[in-house]
Amino acid sequence: MGKALIIGAGGVASVCIHKCCQNSDVFEEICIASRTKSKCDALKAKLDGGKTKISTAQVNADNVDELIALINSFKPDVVINLALPYQDLTIMDACLATKTNYVDTANYEPLDTAKFEYKWQWAYRERFEKAGITALLGSGFDPGVTGVFSAYAMKHEFDEINYIDILDCNAGDHGYPFATNFNPEINIREVSAKGSYIEDGKWIETEPMEIKRVYNFPEVGEKDMYLLHHEELESLALNIKGIKRIRFFMTFGQSYLTHLKCLENVGMTSIEPIEFEGKQIVPLQFLKAVLPDPASLGPRTKGKTNIGCIFIGKKDGKDKTYYLYNVCDHEECYKEVGSQAVSYTTGVPAMIGAAMLLTGKWNTPGVHNIEEFDPDPFMDALNKFGLPWKESYNPDLVD
Ligand code: NDP
């Protein structure tokens, strides 16, 4: 049916590429392009021989001209951006210049400020609309499936949704005292930032990890979770009718938090460049270099993730509560595609989002967050491609 250019060859890209190959009726041809071409070639070697035709290329996604040249030579129907949030705008520029659809899993973040918000990407709306192409923002799990869950709850279960709590639990154990499950730099920037949530249309800011709750997750058990700022809060508060409050919680174990505090206290998580042996280095980037590569956690990680949303709202004038979630097993993911569940839960929705565009199921030109589209075909695809969802009408609530 179509051709996809996948940019990035890390943990998430690897899963997405496996899933494109499992969905070869839609993904007839893919090109894997990244900064380090050997990683693209290794993925191709692993997956070649199936129905999806695979090629590879070297590209620096910070360089718009290089991207345009690559898009013009491969001529994809969609570009799936699985590099880092810093590359979102250059890749969107290249898509605009070549009139190519765009999908990503994380919103743009400037390299020098750990602040992520949609304003930079939403500023492309009119230009994408005029070019007749679609940008699908945030097609991972959170953001991503959490937005699809919200659209599904709105469409089928509620007249208005007043409260959403997004709960992201990773109960996986990789056996290291400290490692991050996805790109360490992005992960640490996210969790060391101030927390925030939206109440009555206003952002309320908290100190990092200030708000803690304990939640008993289905199929996982009781875990400590902490309120974080998260990008989908911004778009869901606008796109879901009736929202009074929306929060995001993520679980962290004590060992992770103790190490993080210590690294922060000694300055290792700073993104301010320092002079070291005559060279400018960013402490957080140096830390990334000494931490385990998230892709190497796959064979060691045991346990499950449980990510979902609790909705409270009204249906036919009555109060209603509804919980939608997915449980994913690290070892099963590794058996299937050679990656742990955090990469898996992101890579599968990235493939599905691109498939929605390639099959024309979602095709409104412009720049759109995932909850703006019809959730039903995406929900069906989650069941088919390894992320089945579960629902409960009587969940425990978060106070
Ligand atoms: P990795 O660090 O494993 O992979 C990133 C890849 O991007 C690497 O292959 C890297 O190349 C490549 N890359 C980085 N900079 C450039 C560049 N300038 N040009 C070309 N390629 C580049 O990250 P993950 O796979 O863990 O994460 C990928 C994305 O997914 C991130 O944006 C992350 O924020 C997002 N994410 C989203 C989630 C969600 O639920 N929505 C959850 C988890 C992650 P090299 O190998 O040379 O370094």
How would you portray this structure in words?
By secondary structure, the protein is α/β, with parallel strands linked by helices. The mean pLDDT is 95. It has helices at 11-22, 37-47, 64-74, 88-98, 119-122, 125-131, 145-156, 184-191, 232-239, 254-265, 283-290, 330-337, 341-358, 376-384, and strands at 2-7, 27-34, 53-58, 78-81, 101-104, 134-137, 160-170, 195-199, 202-206, 212-217, 221-227, 245-251, 274-276, 279-281, 304-315, 318-329, 366-369, 389-392. Helix 1 packs across helix 13 (341-358), helix 3 crosses helix 4 (88-98) and helix 13 (341-358) packs across helix 14. The strands form three sheets. Strands 7, 8, 9, 10, 11, 12, 15, 16 and 18 form a nine-stranded mixed beta sheet that branches. Bound molecules: NADPH dihydro-nicotinamide-adenine-dinucleotide phosphate. Residues 8-13, 34-36, 39, 59-62, 82-85, 87, 105-106, 140-144, 182-183, 186, 294-295, 346 line the site of NADPH dihydro-nicotinamide-adenine-dinucleotide phosphate.
